[in-house]
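Sanity check record (used in CI):
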Amino acid sequence: MNAIDTSILDTLTRIVGPSGILGGADMTPYLVDWRNLYSDGRALAVVRPGSTQELSDCVKACVAAGVPMVPQGGNTSMVAGATPDASGRAVVISTQRMNRIREIDTLDMTMVAEAGVILKTAQDVAREAGALFPLSLGAEGSATIGGVLSTNAGGNTTVRYGNARELMLGLEAVMPDGTIWNGLRRLRKDNTGYALRHLLVGAEGTLGFITAAALRLFPLPREEAVALCALRDEDAALSLFRRFRDRDESAVRAFEYMSAGSMHLVLDNVPGATLPLAERAGHYVLVDLASSRPQAGLRELLEEVLAEAMEEGEVLDAALAESGAQRAAIWRLREEHPEGQKLAGASVKSDVSVPVSKVPEMIRRSSEALRKLIPGSRPVPFGHIGDGNIHMNLAQPPDMDAAAFLARSHDIMDTVNEVVRDYGGSFSAEHGIGRIKTDMMEDWRGGAELAAMQAIKAALDPKGLFNPGKVLP
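Expected output for FAD-binding oxidoreductase:
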């Protein structure tokens, strides 16, 4: 370690205290991404400020020393967006200690939460206050408020409540020069100049480090109804979604598609996962209805629509949850899809979106193209068919070496992306760009759009010290 490194570490330690900085083997969990695709990460230190002011002071010190900074919340990124590179020059800025709920107001229906608050904690605190924070995703027990906003996370209830961006009213952030921007406004209407908060949401920490957010809350549901359905094909899934939407769009909280390939990896690999249907099928959907209205009649709605779809041959079988425990068990089958694929071996993930009407065609065309690209591979698509976002993933062939399979990652993603492009879709729906997809930006967002992004980055972070190597090529 040279004198400059020693000096900046001494400065950071003075700012956050000895308990606020980690080195050596203690850094290991912070240096590897969740998918274990990048295990070469190195860092000068992991810095854990306990307040916005401490973070501001750390940023100013790093900027003065020319030290890059990589923000990290729960380290659940699917695209290695919070992982340092192998140079060892950067410090990881962890928000773990910035974990307070500062305020909750059930008249305004708002909550102010710091960046390190675990998403599940925010949900629980809102519920205890008699309100709902609706953002929900598989990693909610680890993901943080700062992380889900920095990536504009989507999740299971986007069809009803929108992405993280739609649930945010205001932000507090430390900008790349170390200044603190306090934009924690709880206003539903604020048409004052550029919407800086929306620039930071989805920027993956490249334009500023989110430290706190004013979030929207909603009334708690008074009635819920959940079912798992076995379907004829992908078209039947879309038809069923339309039936529910046309009957009562406001009741649809989530509508999740699961292919046989993906569901069966869960059933075969995740302990305790059981299918509440008589037989396995080729396609499944999870229907989740909720309403804050008393006596909303959701059970009747669920039964009526499923009966209609069964008469048309679209739904082959269905299991309706009779209790909270059964609802949780059905949801577990959906939430364990990433884990089921991980336990089955290597997989390549394509987080894509297309217009909702094109989802069945996209799944079929992509699956066929992937099977031709790598014979014996297993397409395992699943996701949020109600908002057009499907995780068009591919599991390695059982007889193929994992490293050899992963070496084809970009061929696999390119194969899916070309199908998605035909439908006017996006190669990044809810996971972001991170470190994995930067090389795709020129092709997909080149020209005026990418030039504007690069100009914004250069204006706000001229030294390129905020999460370098992410988002932009």
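Residues 234-248 form the longest helix (15 residues). If this sentence no longer matches the regenerated tokens, the check is flagged for review.
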